[in-house]
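The methods section describes the discrete structure representation at length, but only in general terms. What matters is that the chain and its backbone geometry are given together, residue for residue. For illustration, here is how one protein appears when written out as sequence plus structure tokens:
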Amino acid sequence: MKKKHLFVSAITLFLLTILSGCETKLVVFDPKGPQARKILDLINWSLIWIGLIVLVVVALFIYVVWKYRSKPGDENYEPPQEHGNKWIEIIWTAIPVVIVALLIVPTVKTLYELEEIPEGYEDQDILVIHVTSADWKWIFSYPEENIETVNYVNIPVNRPVLFKLTSAGTMQSFWIPSLAGQKYTMAKMETELYVVSDHEGSFMGRNTNFNGQHYAEMEFEVLAQSPKDFEEWVKDVQEKAPKLTEDEYIELLKPTHLGRKSYSNTHLEWINHADHHAKEYLNPELYRKHGYPGKTFFDTENNASKNEENYGGDHSGH
């Protein structure tokens, strides 16, 4: 009976290992930029060592269970007195130290590299984009181009982009898994994230912070375009998109779930939420009115379909 239980346990472990590979391809394992590839290299390095550790531990577990299993005639068996072996104790103390070092050193090295402009792009002009997170929406301001978008952001390929991140209220998390790691957005503070896309295409970005129900619906689209297409898009927004007024911006910051919007100026003209003395735009009464904190709701007078603009090309917004 004991042999049967051991066999079932081994089969279960094997099936779990096999079935864990049945998921569809994860975005982080398909990087489209140098920063994302650094993260993937770190993930793969960690998985290799974690896999080796799991194999060794499982092998030792099976060996010990089999070697020291209960056998007929062992009912009155008394094992001999064992004394500590200093070399074994040194080895099993040193092994975890080595494992931790093998994981920490490349992790720290990668974290520092992610804070810098990717290698090979140091001499290029940096595109600066201010990112402001609000309740269930993302606002992107291009100060040099003097345009602003909501819930989508266009960038040129093979050019470093510096995202300057802040929040108009709640702390949230900015993540583009195909291009870079995540960073938090916090009111009256600014964090920075370098991103380079070396592939044209549409990539998903999202909020990954637990700050209310449906926080995961805070998605946005990143469209990596050729430099020519990007310049044409900028010119198109500058010429055709409406101006953003301060009153409209205040309404924009209220808890709503919007589609895409484009403007031919930025809110940085009157406020930068990263400024320590910036005014706060919080609307707690709206949370209470609509049920509970973090609830995504649709305002029938200001819904996504009625406000979706088409200044961003042919790609669709979220």
